[in-house]
Write a structure and sequence with these properties.
CATH architecture of the largest domain: 3-Layer(aba) Sandwich
Oligomer: single chain
Number of strands: 12
Distance between the termini: 35 Å
Structural class: alpha/beta
Number of domains: 2
Largest sheet: 7 strands, mixed
Number of helices: 12
CATH class of the largest domain: Alpha Beta
Length: 310
């Protein structure tokens, strides 16, 4: 079982890269501990800014630093970063096209026991609707490393959501296929497709393995690049498989499922079933309890696929 969470990987990449790249600046809103960036602050104090609990200010400060040539990385709880600082993300970062990477930590229902105030289950809908803002949900520690290294090479705005707890490995250190803004084929099959992102990729992978044992070929697409969506991979799946299941740690409105459905309705009409969170305050509980309650599990994916295929 993996014990290294994606937050730690982000810290490790930034600590290493900042040794030679003095333009890297990390900003935290009293969140260095929860973001696992305490080591970065200790090793690179001259490249670290602590704003305190001030989400609007931290995004504007980061945009100002980026306008001066810095590579700004903001780490703050996703539930606050994607809502309280929405205007600053829209205007100072996206509209101004500044080199700011917004890292939403403890995303989705990671703060499950704290309820709706601390859930970030509409961040695709909010930040994904902003022109120039890219949205990424890496699935495991290995993909997180690849993504962070890639983002350090460009100067465009982005929002990255990671969970709070370690997640099971989808890939390995020696085998992590990665192409920027292209979905990764986790499991191949020509009967049905599952599209997943973030923490939902592992249960999708497990469902595909279970379905294969039943003679059902299940394609799994790791859509870590939530925006820009890999439309070519989606269209190919629609052409080559009988139906598509989208599973996501997000509400239905404005999520991956709605984006996929909108694309296919005009380009390649296909049956799409979305497993997601309802349009209501989610229950309070540990992440796995919330996932189980709403059917965001490998078991429910297998059941849904069986029903779709008759």
């Amino acid at each position: 079982m993996n014990t290294i969470h994606n937050r730690q990987v982000i810290n490790d990449v930034l600590v290493e890269q900042a040794k030679t790249d003095k333009d890297i600046v990390v900003l935290c809103s009293d969140s260095r501990g929860s973001a696992s960036l305490s080591e970065y602050a200790k090793v690179h104090p001259q490249q670290f800014v602590e704003t305190g609990i001030a989400e609007q200010n931290i995004v504007s400060i980061a945009a100002g630093l980026a306008a001066c040539g810095k590579k700004a990385f903001v780490a703050s709880p996703a539930c606050f970063l994607s809502t309280r600082s929405m205007e600053q993300a829209k205007v100072d970062v996206a509209y101004s096209n500044t080199n700011v990477k917004l890292i939403g930590i403890s995303g989705g229902v990671s703060y499950g026991a704290l309820g709706m105030t601390h859930h970030s289950t509409n961040d695709i809908a909010t930040l994904g609707s902003v022109p120039n803002m890219r949205v990424y949900f890496p699935s495991d520690r290995h993909q997180t490393k690849c993504l962070m290294e890639a983002l350090l090479q460009d100067a465009k705005p982005a929002y990255i959501r990671v969970g709070r707890n370690p997640v099971e490995d989808v890939y390995t250190a020696d085998n992590t296929p990665f192409e920027m803004d292209k979905a990764t084929l986790v499991h191949d099959g020509n009967d049905i497709t599952i599209i997943a992102a973030g923490e939902m990729v592992y249960p999708a992978q497990q469902a595909a393995i279970a379905l294969a044992a039943q003679g059902i070929g299940c394609r799994v697409l790791d859509m870590y690049c939530v925006k820009p969506l890999d439309t070519a991979a989606v269209l190919k799946a629609a052409q080559e498989t009988k139906a598509i299941i989208v599973i996501e740690e997000h509400v239905a409105i404005g999520g991956i499922g709605s984006t996929v459905s909108q694309l296919l309705s005009s380009k390649q009409p296909t049956r799409v079933v979305s497993l997601c969170l309802p349009d209501e305050p989610a229950i309070a509980g540990k992440s796995n309890e919330v996932f189980a309650y709403y059917g965001l599990t490998a078991e429910n994916l297998v059941k849904t696929a069986q029903e779709l295929l008759g």
